[in-house]
Design a protein that fits this description.
Elements lengths: L14 E4 L4 E4 L7 H12 L8 E4 L4 H4 L9 E4 L2 E4 L2 E3 L9 E4 L2 E5 L8 E6 L7 E6 L12 H6 L5 H14 L2 E4 L5 E2 L18
Parallel strand pairs: 2-3, 3-4, 10-11
Antiparallel strand pairs: 1-2, 4-5, 5-6, 7-8, 8-9, 9-10, 11-12
């Protein structure tokens, strides 16, 4: 949301993943949202911050990383950087390759909005929601598929060409998408032409 003086008001979508082995949190809002985030975890999934094993921030903007300080038992992945406390960990993300957290949850590089942007892919099975992509600001919200100025101009993009390419990749494989600033939506553009983010009339 843009204020009357031109300031932007933004906060991110937060996603909790109950994996087979790990509790994983994707994006953590701003540093002013710590109490809210703790309350949501307790009320919605009955999890305390110390029981989170991985925190994945889809990129390094402060509206996606501000609550990281709450999760001191977790390995943190911020964009393509991975650390536990002061120890910074070499991972395949450093070379643009995917990082497998557990068999059905992986982190892949999807630069564009920022050069360090990543997406979390969760395979839930065909009886649930299929492949869910938690994309951060690769997709701002569902509307930016038909109105690409939302991601190109309003949200901004450090590399629009890379972002459009990675948007197309996600639209080709995901059954559902959780964007950076909105609710999850079903990907009706899967296996269709025109889902790349330049509007539905643009061919993949």
């Amino acid at each position: 949301m843009i204020g009357p003086n031109g300031d932007m008001h933004a906060n991110c979508t937060v996603t909790f993943i109950k994996g087979c082995k790990f509790n994983i949190l994707v994006d953590t809002m701003t540093a002013w949202d710590g109490e809210k985030l703790k309350r949501l975890l307790k009320e919605e999934v009955n999890v305390e911050p110390e029981n989170i094993h991985y925190v994945v921030c889809t990129h390094s903007h402060s509206d996606h990383t501000g609550g990281n300080y709450l999760f001191r038992n977790a390995t943190h992945i911020v964009g393509t950087s991975m650390n536990y406390g002061e120890r910074y960990i070499t991972s395949p993300l450093d070379d643009g390759k995917e990082f497998l957290i557990e068999p059905k949850v992986k982190v892949v590089c999807t630069p564009g909005h920022t050069l360090d942007s990543v997406t979390v892919l969760v395979e839930t099975g065909i009886d649930e929601k299929g492949l869910v992509a938690i994309t951060g600001d690769l997709f701002e919200r569902e509307a930016d598929i038909e109105f690409p100025n939302l991601w190109r101009e309003l949200a901004g993009s450090q590399n629009p060409e890379e972002q459009e390419k990675n948007r197309k990749k996600i639209l080709e494989i995901a059954d559902f998408i959780i964007p950076g600033h909105g609710p999850m939506f079903q990907n009706f553009y899967k296996n269709k032409e025109g889902g790349g983010g330049a509007g539905p009339s643009t061919s993949c």
